[in-house]
Design a protein that fits this description.
homodimer; 389 residues; alpha/beta; L-amino peptidase D-ALA esterase/amidase; 8-stranded mixed β-sheet; 7-stranded mixed β-sheet; 11 helices
């Protein structure tokens, strides 16, 4: 995409021999909108970011992995400020147009000497062709890069939206739930970008879960440099833009879940027929977060008792004798009646697939909601028991 | 304890060669109080039990493991009724004084032929000395029996309270969270027994978690046969009785957590200095349920960032710069400041113990709450992925 350059290098912040410092540079001031974690314990870069985003303009985004710069007090804020200062100086741009993001271990101070040495090298490496490096350098326990581009057009003018994300653990729907950067060459005002980003976030990143924990650093940032000339302003163009943005964010969301720590399967739960929207949300959220459901899916066991029991404890209105449960289009329970061992064996075979679709129809109303989530394997435990060692 | 007899046999309900049918018999009608699961999906024995307990008298309790008799519709209720009928007939007591409890797989019908054959054998086996057999036959994924007896005295008259419980997975504080049977020879009225049981339950079984799921069958049942002559009626005697009952239930609660599926450590989290009771509850509940906290404890890693982050997302009021965090009496974070790698290494050594005590002081008020929970190992996943196979 025209006007954006990228870099990703190894600065030595991570113990392992992996890239850990990344930069996006916009060659003109881009309109910026961002959503941050709702955790009350927030990292220094989020505290700074909330301030800086108010102006709505951004030239550069510095991201480090390996250290979250969280629970680091005043010194953490000073460190984050020093980082953006180094970027601003190196690129000769205003410091308040440099955003910083950090992800990694909580509670350690940033190793500033690595940033002193790394940032000039990073700026040297900037190129339109280095998006892969950026996408790699922001990863933590992720096993793969997460990038996607979609295009649309407004009155004959084509525009693109590219999304780059990281996220694998500490994922739950209580805000952006990871780091994600969305870049577009469309032309859009800050207020409109914020509104559309918020709506799309609610339907995508806020409907995925890996393990039910919310990060202290979650950030979803969108930059629009306007270079395509495609103007997003009237309702019709906003709808087009929102559709394309949702495609990008939906794909990134699913990539995050698919790459969930220890995950072997990607699962969608849809709860329909709920009396209220809130009931549909509560029931689907409880199922997507249940360790018992997730371990059963890992075991390829259609243990529908755990699914219905999770709905039952969720606080949503449910009536046992009204529930229908489907895997793909195959019913396993109808009106609270189990369809028997032969049907269940068939469904156990369906569960050998890598993508599993579960629908619970409460048959109490018209409302629907749903989540993408992953199964739960021994590997999740292994990854998280040994994370800092 | 005088007046109660027990039996536990293998009736063939479980696939494995294990005891699975159990009976308590009171030789006189005992005053009965019970608390049941708050899950909206409830098992047939709970539906029946809620009705029967209203009369407040009980002569016998039949318990089977291996099958929860849940999501079994009308047939499940008929089956549960047939079971209590068999017990009533065999013991020549009123059917409405026979309670039944089931625990095990959800969604399969009870194998009635096993009950037809097993119940007469069970009645034959009744003896004051067979409490061990009873405690063994009610287990599912538990690895050990859970029994405890405490005594007290009222105006020179000694009384005993014995508790027997099962529970290892699907444990969270949203009611009794397992099966537990409490027997006493104290003399107490139904209303008083219910009130004291409810208060004690809130402070014990409602403050433990293994995996955050709530069973469809949870039942806490208390029977008082009055044989000791110790009368619980005035405030003083009620206080004595409540203290003894709390000792019993507290020990059973800790036994359940210690025997949690895959657990290697028993952990207590206390959140103090909260602005409100609800804040203390929310923060401690979020920490006790966090998979990231639980896997870190399994890894003997004092990953305090995960603990404070869980408090931060809990909805409780927290201020990063005010938080103090202790392991045993050793601070690791004071006023939001990490005390450094040397202190952390010392605490990592503390974490090698089997019991770990964590205190988070929010320094915002006077309220305290807490939970007992366990760590989270690969074995939890293994047990639950393979549960039905």
């Amino acid at each position: 995409m025209k006007g954006f350059q990228f870099a990703g290098i190894r600065a030595g912040i991570k113990k392992k021999d992996q890239k850990d410092l990344a930069l996006i540079y916009s060659d003109s001031p881009a309109v910026a909108a961002a959503l941050f974690t709702r955790n009350k314990v927030v990292a220094a870069p989020v505290i700074l970011g909330r301030e800086k985003i108010k102006k709505g303009l951004c030239r550069a985004v510095l991201v480090n992995s390996g250290n979250a710069n969280c629970f680091t007090g005043e010194r953490g804020i000073e460190d984050a400020r020093a980082c953006s200062g180094l970027v601003a100086k190196g690129l000769d741009i205003p410091e308040d147009q440099v955003l910083v993001s950090s992800t990694g271990v909580i509670g350690a101070y940033l190793p500033m000497e690595k940033f002193d040495a790394g940032i000039p090298e990073l700026i040297q490496a900037l190129s339109e062709n280095h998006m892969d490096d950026f996408a790699e350098a922001i990863l933590t326990t992720d096993t793969r890069r997460k990038m996607v581009t979609e295009t649309g057009s407004i009155q004959g003018k084509a525009f693109s939206i590219t999304g780059i994300a990281k996220g694998s653990g500490m994922i739950r729907p209580d805000m952006a739930t990871m780091l994600a950067f969305v870049l577009t060459d469309a032309k859009i005002e800050k207020e409109d970008l914020t509104a559309i980003l918020t709506a799309v976030n609610e339907r995508t990143f806020n409907r995925i879960t890996v393990d039910g924990d919310t990060s202290t650093n979650d950030t979803l940032l969108a930059l629009a440099n306007g270079k395509s000339g495609a103007l997003i302003h009237d309702p019709e163009s906003k709808a087009v833009f929102q559709t394309v943005l949702e495609k990008v964010c939906q794909q990134l969301s699913k990539m995050i879940v698919r790459d969930g720590e220890g995950a072997t399967k990607l699962v969608q739960i849809i709860v329909k027929g709920a009396k209220t929207k809130e009931d549909a949300f509560k029931a689907s959220e409880a199922i997507a977060h249940s360790n018992l459901v997730k371990t059963a899916i890992y075991g390829e066991d259609p243990n529908w008792g755990r699914i219905t029991a999770a709905a039952g404890r969720s606080g949503a209105r449910v009536v046992t004798e009204k529930m229908d449960l489907y895997f793909d289009d195959q019913p396993l329970v109808l009106k609270g009646q189990w369809l028997g061992p032969d049907v269940e064996k068939e469904i156990a075979r369906l569960m050998k697939k890598e993508e599993i679709f579960i629908t619970l129809d409460l048959n109490l109303g018209q409302e629907t909601d749903g989540f993408w989530f992953c199964d739960f394997s021994e590997n999740y435990v292994k990854i998280n028991a040994e994370y800092r060692s």
